[in-house]
Amino acid sequence: MPTVIIEGPQLNLENKKELVQQLTPIVAYVYDWKVEDVIIIIRENTNENVARGGILLSERNGRASGQS
Fold first, then answer.
1. CA distance 63 to 59
2. Domain map of the chain by residue range?
3. Contact yes or no for 55/67 (Cβ under 8 A)
4. What pLDDT, on a 0 to 100 scale, did the predictor assign at position 62?
5. Could you tell me the end-to-end alpha-carbon distance of the chain, in angstroms, rounded to an integer?
6. Angle in degrees, CA 33, 44, 6, rounded to 5
7. Which CATH number applies to 3-59: 1.10.3720.10, 3.90.1150.10, 3.30.429.10, 3.90.960.10?
8. 62 and 47 in contact (C-beta within 8 Å)?
9. 19-36 b/e with 16+ CB inside 10 Å = b?
């Protein structure tokens, strides 16, 4: 059965519900499986556990996401 793993920043419960409700039917359609058989795993990462450009996100001190 299709399993989708999403890694990203933390989401509130309402956003998680919306994400899985919208993603599940797409995955089921593409794989030609029933929506009941689609598994989605959300792995949330805090800013202390993610770095971009060698700098932890928690240490970026409000830098804009497009800045170097």
1. 9
2. 3-59
3. no
4. 62
5. 41
6. 25
7. 3.30.429.10
8. no
9. ebeeebeebbeeeeeeee
Q: How crowded is residue 63: how many other Cβ atoms within 10 Å of its Cβ?
A: 13
Spatial contact of 39 and 4, defined as CB atoms under 8 Å apart: yes
User: Residue 26's pLDDT is what?
Assistant: 98
Kindly report, residue by residue over 7-65, the tens digit of the pLDDT: 999 999 999 999 999 999 999 999 999 999 999 999 999 999 999 999 999 998 766 55
d(CA 47, CA 39): 26
pTM (predicted TM-score): 0.77
Lookup: tokens for 24? 């599940």
Pairwise CA distance, residues 55 & 48, whole Å? 10
Cα distance between residue 3 and residue 5, in whole Å: 7
